[in-house]
Amino acid sequence: MPDVPGHTAAEQGQMSMFPPIADYAFLSNCEQSCLVAPNGAVEWLCLPRPDAPSVFGALLDRTAGMFRFSPGNTQVPQNRRYVPGTMVLETTWQTPTGWMTVQDFLAVGPVPHEGRRPDYHRAPTDFGAVGALVRIATCISGRVEAVVNCAPIFNYGSVSGTWSYSGDGYDAMTIAAPEGDIRLNLASSIPLGVLGARCYGRTTLTQGQSAFITLSWGDSRAPANQDDAVSALNTTIDYWRDWLSSAKVPDHPWKPYLDRSALTLKGLSYAPTGAIMAASTTSLPETPGGARNWDYRFTWIRDSAFMLRSLYRLGFDWEAIEYWGFVLDAVTQGDLHRRPELQIMYGIGGERDLTEHTLDHLSGWRGARPVRVGNGAWNQQQHDVWGMIIDALDVQFHQAASQIVAPVWEGLATFVDAALQHWREPDQGIWEVRGDPKDFVASKVMCWVAAARGADLADQRGEADRARRWRAGADEIKAEVLDKGLSDRGVFRQHYQTDDLDASLLLLPIMGFLPPDDKRIVSTVLAIADELTQDGLVLRYKVEGTDTGFEGDEGTFTICSFWLVTALAMIGETDRARALCQKLLSFAGPLLLYAEEIDATTGQHLGNFPQAFTHLALIEAVSLLIETDPASKVGPSYNPPPAI
Description:
By secondary structure, the protein is α+β, with helices and mostly antiparallel strands.
């Protein structure tokens, strides 16, 4: 890896022990999630919710806890893949003496309907999270030594617990955090022992033999023997495949990317509330060794319209409805008769106060510090939020606004009024820059979206006076943006005080501010493609011209690159759009997952992982290109005759 300023050679050697971000596997049961490193170690698991403190945190510090189940003398697997159509990871190992596969999954099983969970705000389905991480090893050739090494360090790697045996044998152990109610139970077909903070065990498997280990957190349904583990595997595979079978994904070479993006969005969802996290991690850096490290385990209103579009596009109507339910609960705090309060992000349980603090005892991924918990942008003023939530409302109730009950409509109407009241004021912009507020063009345009979409919805409800007033406000915003938001060369600018470009301007055609063939839109899209890219991939902005509150460069933002694909296709540059899309798909991680950014020079993924917004933009761009691909309409040119 390149030298990192301020670090000794020894420290850099330590940092190189962290796997690349894109090499992690992402597992989920829609209530918990974890990341598995290539060497078979679970290096990120937070309990009892994905935004809770970690019990395995080696992702952010090699001493913060991990759980490895793999061959004892091999670190590099022969192959890793998801069992097709699922969130089950299968790793194949070649050792000097044999071959072994390990299947890892967060178990899903039938939901008992006795009693009601107070934290479960959505209607339970027939299958849900079991509360167990299950790992099954099978020797497929020769003989292999399978080794367990489980070392939880609670509260983000700050405190360990004490292991103790459960029952009379060596097959079950338990450990609890010194404070709080987190208790972990380990059950295995491998005899277990304790070595310091670690529970460990090993056994030799010969061809056809299997061993299992289950880590659970207070769930009586967790597999306790080999047969239960295999049954849980089959149930979990069936669950994910059954869920994915309802997707409207065309038969196309890019289908695997859409399938994996859909599964990832589902995996980032939090079933009790319907929330969908921006990412499953905190503080994976946007700049190697830098300080642009944020906690993304929250839901951004900014994502809501794109989330609903993608879910409906893929045919996941219930996920869209429940996500909208979360948004509605969050802004009303569960009371439809109170005046809604809108902020840019919420906790996955609807929490409003996301105060940020640092965990100074953690080294950070490859030395990127500080490690942050919470997000200081939660109470920023960002004008795009009104447009995003009204656009989401329009998507949710397309041509059926009359169905919106009066208290909800009146509450959401206040957001249109707020956009019209505040649109002239500067803000922090869609990228949450921590410098002084500016008159960001994209923010003004999103206020226009709030007014224009609101007027359409009011028309559908027969509220002519309100529609007329809002449409007049939208026209006023558009007139000022066209007057002050364009540079002398007819290209939209980042904000009124500069001629710099900004990738958020790609939202102008996507959100319908002007027709795609308008020369100002065409010029802006092409200017971004030619001038705000690095090796063809899109930067959010030029850091030297944007007061972000931080120094140093950042990688290209993958969502912006997919936005450019969409915008190029919209303005008729389909060949260029398809070439860029193919390039972006080639940068996917080994398991077709994406982080927030890509270093255009190395292809290294940066930022939190996996990133929902990136996968949302992929779904939109790839789906649009497939729709415009003549080959996808006419099918294959040759169909061989059936076998006789």
